[in-house]
UniProtKB/TrEMBL annotation:
The lineage of its organism: Bacteria, Bacillati, Actinomycetota, Actinomycetes, Micrococcales. It comes from the Bacteria. This is Ferredoxin reductase. Residues 33-131 form the FAD-binding FR-type domain. Pfam families: Fer2, NAD_binding_1. InterPro entries: 2Fe-2S_ferredoxin-like_sf (IPR036010), 2Fe-2S_ferredoxin-type (IPR001041), Beta-grasp_dom_sf (IPR012675), FAD-bd_FR_type (IPR017927), FNR_nucleotide-bd (IPR039261), MRET (IPR050415), OxRdtase_FAD/NAD-bd (IPR001433), Riboflavin_synthase-like_b-brl (IPR017938). Residues 269-351 form the 2Fe-2S ferredoxin-type domain. One of its GO terms (molecular function) is 2 iron, 2 sulfur cluster binding. PROSITE patterns: 2FE2S_FER_2 (PS51085), FAD_FR (PS51384). Keywords: 2Fe-2S, FAD, Flavoprotein, Iron, Iron-sulfur, Metal-binding, Oxidoreductase. Its cofactor is FAD. It comes from Leekyejoonella antrihumi.
Length: 351
């Protein structure tokens, strides 16, 4: 038993029936033996609908690498909700997330978060990180896809004189573009960063049907390690171009959404959440996780893309459909990923 555990056990003699951790949190709100927490230290508006939220994490936080993401939890109407966000702060700094008010949790964070608020955290994850050694880089981003790349640029460009980064960022217009002023300042101060802003309202989207747009924007793109982050259609098109040019190993893609199989007509059904004693009727395209959250059921979740497996929940009975592959499963007791599974008839879940 560790020294801290022994001390808490000794303190419990005097604090029973209240755990000593509850008294510690009165002094230090980040103190928790079970759940990693962070205290909000700043909220910085970025656009009319987005903000950067910086927090000081508890001692068990693992420092993130530039480009990684982490789960952030908040309590809304008494229910703890989790979402995954790319970390926009440079490696070695206190973590920060840049959030756009789309969806219930993101909107809550942008509109309601204040300095001093406590958020719940999970350790940073992800392989969308800088290469091990120095090499020329091409960053292609659109919309909020700039967020993990901003962490990379803030980490690399001010610290490495040999940095050679071309960033091509697309946004609807200047008012919707994240980090515009900071990026312009970094490009002016550091010759290793070449910045191209593309406003799609005036210039249209970058075409990946052939290499023409890239040849004009970054003539030596074939010799660079490329990172792409943005809408699904952009990622798919970029991946296809790199495949056609025989350079798939030089491309790293960060996806926010999961590619889904076509919806099957007649899917859906009634979901019964046994422990919560709730039922809800859904269609065949609604993830079980989303259906449960909208019904007020507390369910585990993480990346919400079928990657981290945090949402695994026992299937007590019924048939579910994998939204990525279209395959169905009906093995009782099987652990299913509720974020990428939908009802294919009546379903009973152990939550």
């Amino acid at each position: 038993m560790g020294v801290k555990s022994a001390a808490l056990r000794a303190m419990s003699v005097f604090t029973t029936p209240i755990p000593p951790e509850e008294y510690l949190r009165l002094v230090n709100p980040l103190a928790s033996s079970r759940q990693l927490r962070g205290v909000v230290t700043s909220v910085t508006p970025e656009t009319p609908t987005s903000a950067t939220i910086t927090f000081r994490p508890g001692s068990r936080w693992q420092p993130h690498q530039a480009g990684q993401w982490a789960r952030v939890g908040v309590e809304i109407d008494g229910v703890r909700q989790w979402r995954s966000y790319s970390l926009s702060a440079p490696a070695g700094a206190d973590p920060a997330v840049t959030v756009t008010a789309i969806g219930r949790v993101s909107t809550y964070l942008v509109r309601n978060t204040k300095v001093g608020d406590i958020v719940f955290l999970a350790p940073p994850q992800g392989d969308f990180v800088l290469p091990a050694g120095p090499r020329p880089l091409l960053m292609l981003t659109a919309g909020s896809g700039i967020t993990p790349v901003m962490s990379m640029i803030r980490t690399l460009v001010p610290r490495r004189k040999d940095a050679d980064v071309v960033l091509v960022h697309s946004s609807r217009d200047r008012t919707a573009s994240l980090f515009t002023d900071e990026l312009q300042e970094l490009a002016a101060e550091h010759p290793g960063l070449h910045l191209v802003h593309r406003y799609t309202t005036d210039e249209g989207r970058i075409s990946f049907a052939d290499s023409g747009d890239l040849d004009r924007l970054c003539p030596d793109w074939r010799s660079r390690k490329a990172y792409v982050c943005g809408p699904t259609e952009m990622l798919d098109a970029a991946h296809a171009l790199w495949e056609r040019t025989g350079l798939p190993d030089t491309l790293t893609v960060e996806r926010f959404n999961t590619a889904l199989a076509p919806e099957v007509p007649g899917g859906g059904g009634q979901i019964t959440f046994e422990k919560s004693d709730k039922q809800v009727e859904v269609d065949g395209s609604t993830p079980l996780l989303l259906a449960g959250e909208e019904a007020g059921v507390i369910m585990p979740s993480g990346c919400r893309m079928g990657i981290c497996r945090t949402c695994l929940t026992p299937l007590l009975s019924g048939r579910i459909r994998d939204l990525r592959t279209g395959e169905t499963h009906d093995d009782e007791g099987e652990l299913i990923q509720t974020c990428i599974s939908a009802a294919a008839g009546p379903v009973h879940l152990d939550c």
